[in-house]
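Reviewer 2 asked us to include a model.

Predict the structure of this chain.
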Amino acid sequence: MKAMAGITSYCPANRPPIRSIPFFSVAMLAFLILASIFPSCGNTDRVEALKKRSLDEDERYLVDYYIKIIEFEKEQFESQEGREKRRTEREQELDTERLNRVLARLEKDPQRWLAIYDRIGKSRSAKGFSNEGY
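Predicted model (structure tokens):
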């Protein structure tokens, strides 16, 4: 009996009775849980929208120049001199000011890269390049 007396000493005698949780509280909790789940379901639509957005002129330039670099890497040259000449031509075509401008804008809003990557992938596929490792 002494053991039982020890257990009851931890339970306050004048504790208020346990009340049932009101329906409104349960409904509010369920609403909050559901509301937190549904926005995550919409993220795929948002990502797709970011991928499909229109590129501005500078972003198209970046994609086009990237594809030119890939084409250059795939080209077969008869000599090292021919390869160096072609590389120099490609470098002279590059508008570094324009490229820096678009990269600075993309750095400020990294989600814009989704559309760039999407267009690079589509351009690579259209030209018959593998999309692995780009």
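The CA atoms of residues 25 and 132 lie 52 Å apart. Residues 58-126 form one domain. We have added this to the supplementary material.
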